[in-house]
């Protein structure tokens, strides 16, 4: 019996996203919701499950992010836009996306893994985006003593061949309370730390899709793990304090 093809999308998925971009209205989307679920949501869930398997590891390969595994319905981001405070009131996103947060950091902006598909591109990314103030401080403080390790991960030949480092939304001066001449200053001025790759959308139509995504997320996993360390430590301390206050 032939082995089933690895999960991927069909040309109809990209066609739907192109049509949605031209007809971003509830009156157009609502009668076509079943088409969205068949051509985009269902294959997206299948892709997420396959990536979960790679994160967990198999007998053939080691896992790389076991603490990030979550059900597809938790990973897949909503197609609906939050327009409450946006000038653009179109109700739907022009892409579909998935985000794997670390267990315990789901309601924060800890490090994680991401990809999205639009009619124009497939973006694969990993890192910390828009951290909360306390998280930003925790990561910067941690990097004072661990910047060399982060630099080593970012300069990995494997990672550099697959992904590029973001600009980090850098400050124009050193953050308050940190030494201006510290060797980690190029990291400390960042407000986010991440790597990403932008690929042709047509890759999503190939059975190698999961392999393309996983190879990049695996290469970026040491960066995500390092950035999450101070946040996980902080979470554990808060949990321990909460337990002691109960008993």
Could you explain the architecture of this structure?
With 247 residues, the protein is an alpha+beta fold. It has one domain: BirA Bifunctional Protein, domain 2 (2-Layer Sandwich), CATH 3.30.930. Helices cover 46% and strands 12% of the residues. It has 8 helices and 5 strands; from the N terminus they run ααααβββααβαβα. It has helices at residues 11-22, 26-29, 33-56, 72-75, 133-154, 157-162, 185-188, 209-246; strands at residues 96-101, 112-117, 121-128, 164-165, 193-200. The chain has a 5-stranded antiparallel beta sheet with strand order 1-2-3-5-4. Helix 3 (33-56) packs across helix 8 (209-246) and helix 5 crosses helix 8 (209-246). The radius of gyration is 20 Å and the shape is globular.
| Helicity range | 40-55%
Name of the top-level CATH class? Alpha Beta
Q: What is the CATH topology?
A: BirA Bifunctional Protein, domain 2
State the domain count: 1
User: Which residues form runs of ≥5 with pLDDT under 50?
Assistant: none
**Distance between the first and last residues' Cα:** 59 Å
Strand order of the largest sheet: 1-2-3-5-4
Radius of gyration (Å): 20 Å
What is the mean predicted local confidence, pLDDT? Answer: 93
Shape annotation = globular
């Amino acid at each position: 019996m032939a082995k089933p093809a690895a999960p991927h999308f069909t040309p109809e998925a990209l066609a739907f996203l192109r049509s949605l971009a031209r007809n971003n209205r509830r009156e157009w989307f609502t009668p076509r919701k079943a088409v969205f679920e068949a051509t985009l949501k269902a294959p997206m869930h299948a892709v997420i499950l396959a990536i979960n398997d790679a994160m967990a590891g198999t007998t053939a390969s080691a896992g790389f992010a076991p603490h990030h595994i979550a059900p597809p319905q938790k990973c897949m981001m909503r197609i609906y836009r939050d327009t409450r405070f946006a000038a653009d009131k179109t109700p739907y996103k022009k892409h579909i996306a998935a985000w794997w947060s670390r267990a315990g950091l789901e309601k924060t902006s800890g490090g994680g893994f991401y990809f999205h598909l639009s009619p124009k591109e497939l973006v694969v990314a990993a890192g910390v985006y828009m951290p909360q103030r306390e998280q930003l401080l925790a990561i910067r403080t941690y990097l004072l003593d661990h910047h060399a390790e982060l630099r080593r991960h970012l300069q990995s030949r494997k990672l550099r061949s697959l992904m590029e480092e973001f600009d980090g939304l850098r400050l124009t001066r050193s953050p308050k309370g940190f030494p201006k001449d510290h060797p980690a200053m190029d990291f400390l001025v960042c407000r986010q730390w991440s790597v990403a790759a932008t690929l042709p959308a047509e890759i999503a139509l190939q059975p190698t899709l999961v392999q393309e995504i996983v190879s990049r997320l695996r290469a970026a996993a040491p960066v995500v793990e390092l950035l999450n360390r101070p946040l996980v430590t902080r979470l554990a301390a808060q949990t321990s304090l909460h337990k002691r206050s109960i008993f």
